[in-house]
């Protein structure tokens, strides 16, 4: 969990396959706030041992910036988790993405593994951060509010494709292309779970990386809903996501007006503004918006 009440800040989280030096290098050289080097879905079963070595060597070649280079390992209920961690931790990744959890015990178990491997590799204990994919199994949907105080966890995110597989659904979409009810529920529960835990909620991917207008609209919407960042599967999505998670100048100007208005009238509970009445929650939201833009 973030220290001192501060929420971890990262707008774009870009996946890069761990079996491609070219794609890892391109992602690391780009504008993504976090690069998620993938050892799970992007790597074929037969290639996982080779990919682990490639990821470790890639991390060890970096002159700096390891804080933004994270690794998605394979899930706890499979045979690869410890092999992944033993291979990559000498490279000192900035964080780990844990997929397909069944609940909080998976995170606690990961913490034990990481503590041992940090000690073995001369890494400060507890310094490797974690983002958790908390909706990829049906069971995990019932534990989305259990991550308050979870060790190392700075962000929660959700997934729709593996959840559909978990429950045996033939699709996760409505006829108009929008997510079905169960998947919108997953999105909402992730947001509420992250807020309860005091960590960053991160929106799931948009699979169609060519639809940048649709990506922009969706990213702007979930940012207004309370999300702090979004996963990306292609470098072309990064600039759109980064821009969408920065409040507009009009939003910032209005937020500053609200903050200034309350500051000029200390002690009031409600105050008139542009023909309406504002109470203290409006002030809190305005302050949060300014902080997100580095103006708070």
From TrEMBL:
Its cofactor is Mg(2+). Residues 11-235 form the HpcH/HpaI aldolase/citrate lyase domain. InterPro entries: Aldolase/citrate-lyase_domain, Citrate_lyase_beta/mcl1/mcl2, Pyrv/PenolPyrv_kinase-like_dom, Pyrv_kinase-like_dom_sf. Keywords: Lyase, Magnesium, Metal-binding. GO terms for molecular function: lyase activity. Belongs to the HpcH/HpaI aldolase family. This is CoA ester lyase.
């Amino acid at each position: 969990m973030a220290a001192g009440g501060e929420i971890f800040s990262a707008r774009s989280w870009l996946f890069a396959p761990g079996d491609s030096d070219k794609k890892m290098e391109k992602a690391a050289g780009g504008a993504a706030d976090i690069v998620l080097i993938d050892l799970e879905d992007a790597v074929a079963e037969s290639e996982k041992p080779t990919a682990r070595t490639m990821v470790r060597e890639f991390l060890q070649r970096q002159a700096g910036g390891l804080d933004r280079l994270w690794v998605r390992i394979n899930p706890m209920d499979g045979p690869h988790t410890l092999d992944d961690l033993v291979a990559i931790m000498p490279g000192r990744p900035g964080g780990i993405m844990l997929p397909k959890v069944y609940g909080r015990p998976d995170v606690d178990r990961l913490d034990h593994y990481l503590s041992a491997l940090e000690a073995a590799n001369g890494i400060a204990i507890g310094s490797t951060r974690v983002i958790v994919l908390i909706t990829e199994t049906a069971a995990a949907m019932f534990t989305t509010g259990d991550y308050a105080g979870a060790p190392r966890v700075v962000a929660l995110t959700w997934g729709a494709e593996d959840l559909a597989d978990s429950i045996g659904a033939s699709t996760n979409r409505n006829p108009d292309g929008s997510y079905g009810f169960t998947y919108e529920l997953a999105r909402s529960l992730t947001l509420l779970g992250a807020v309860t835990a005091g960590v960053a909620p991160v929106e799931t991917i948009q699979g169609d990386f060519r639809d940048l207008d649709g990506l922009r609209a969706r990213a702007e919407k979930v940012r207004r809903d309370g999300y702090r960042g979004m996963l990306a599967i292609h470098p072309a999505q990064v600039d759109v996501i980064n821009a969408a998670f920065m409040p507009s100048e009009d939003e910032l100007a209005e937020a500053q007006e609200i903050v200034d208005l309350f500051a000029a009238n200390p002690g009031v509970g409600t105050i008139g503004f542009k023909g309406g009445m504002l109470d203290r929650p409006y002030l809190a939201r305005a302050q949060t918006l300014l902080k997100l833009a580095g103006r708070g």
